[in-house]
Amino acid sequence: MAQVKSGFVLWFTGLSGSGKTTLSLEIEKRLKNIGIPYVQRLDGDVVRKELTRDLGFSKADRDENIRRVGFVAKLLSDNGIPTLCAFISPYKDVRNEIRQKCSNFIEIFVYCPLKTLIERDPKGLYKKALDGEIKGFTGIDDPYEPPENPEITIDTSVESVDDEVEKIISYITKKDLLEM
Amino acid sequence: MAQVKSGFVLWFTGLSGSGKTTLSLEIEKRLKNIGIPYVQRLDGDVVRKELTRDLGFSKADRDENIRRVGFVAKLLSDNGIPTLCAFISPYKDVRNEIRQKCSNFIEIFVYCPLKTLIERDPKGLYKKALDGEIKGFTGIDDPYEPPENPEITIDTSVESVDDEVEKIISYITKKDLLEM
User: Fold this and answer.
1) Residue A23 contacts residue A66 (beta carbons within 8 Å)
2) For residue A113, how many other CB atoms are within 10 A of its CB?
């Protein structure tokens, strides 16, 4: 049975549709499969309903949203819980602010070329953003600041989900956060 | 070594100065002493800085403050962490809302007669409230709705801290949340 040796935060950042949620769900599944009893996933759907429903999508509000999530992630990981956060989190400074606060912060840049995202576009969001029906859409008319030194970079346009999961599990094992 | 069998929330509610923080600190100390590796305490000082700095002390803001804390407490306790929340939390409805959401919610009414609180008043807050220098002070010119069916009631004007701690630890042990 695998064991968590120290709580950690896996912070998935990247554009809408890049694969953050899919990947975090797979990691959660894997950790549970190897016997980790508690794993907490946080994403926009839950958090914006429960913790940050007062906030919109301006830079200040996006930053405050991420700050609150960061506080919760820190509490969980300080208590030994692997915490998986999947948020576009477009701004570098606030991501780094959270990095400073968390003991084991692992930034995972979930990259996919914009061209591919626009082609896939399963929810039609990029089309709407390009047509101007949605305003302030990250990557189209709102900025995304890629991480400068992420612990892990994943290109979901070329890597398989299995390979991506392997890469992340292998990283946290090598960092001695997880014992297999 | 004692073990947590299931995460739980100890929710300490009561007037300012009634002894919520003291008691939650003692419970934290006790749980750590008997070998529980992780215990999380949440109180106004931390939470209002990190999670709810946008909020004031109106009824709506107090309720939203408690709601966010409740969400965090639920996350922690769902992950097996004993979570100790010390908040005046004057309104019944929002306390009950959190009770519904948390699996093991234990409401602890930390009672002390107002007369005694006004006599003790180590921070001089009651004096200021009575003199009208502080407005909206719970118990003086802002309401406090006592719990109707708290799991545990403590009268800090008559019980010793040791007895109070014993009463709480014995309760969670009997409820099979803690194994000694």
Assistant:
1) no
2) 14
Domain A3-179, CATH number (from 3.30.310.50, 3.30.465.10, 3.40.50.720, 3.40.50.300)? 3.40.50.300
Per-residue pLDDT tens for A38-66?
999 999 888 888 898 889 999 999 999 99
Q: Does A148 touch chain B (CB under 8 A)?
A: no
Inspect the interface and report whether the beta carbons of A54 and B51 lie closer than 8 Å.
no
Q: How far apart are CA A126 and CA A129, in angstroms?
A: 5
Distances (CA, A) of A113 to A85, A162, B121: 21, 20, 62
Rounded to a whole number of angstroms, the distance from the CA of B121 to the nearest CA of chain A is 32
Distance CA B169, CA B180 (A): 10
Q: In degrees, to the nearest 5, what angle opens at C-alpha A12 toward C-alphas A45 and A104?
A: 115
First-last CA distance in chain A: 7
SS3 B41: strand
The mean of the pLDDT values for chain B is 96
Nearest CA in chain A to B68: A51
pLDDT at site B136: 93
For chain A, which residues make up each domain, given as ranges? 3-179
Distance from CA of B140 to the nearest CA of A (A): 30
Residue A93 has a pLDDT of 96
pLDDT digits (tens, 9 = 90+) for B74-111: 999 999 999 999 999 999 999 999 999 999 999 999 99
As for the ipTM of the complex, it is: 0.93
pTM, two decimals, is: 0.94
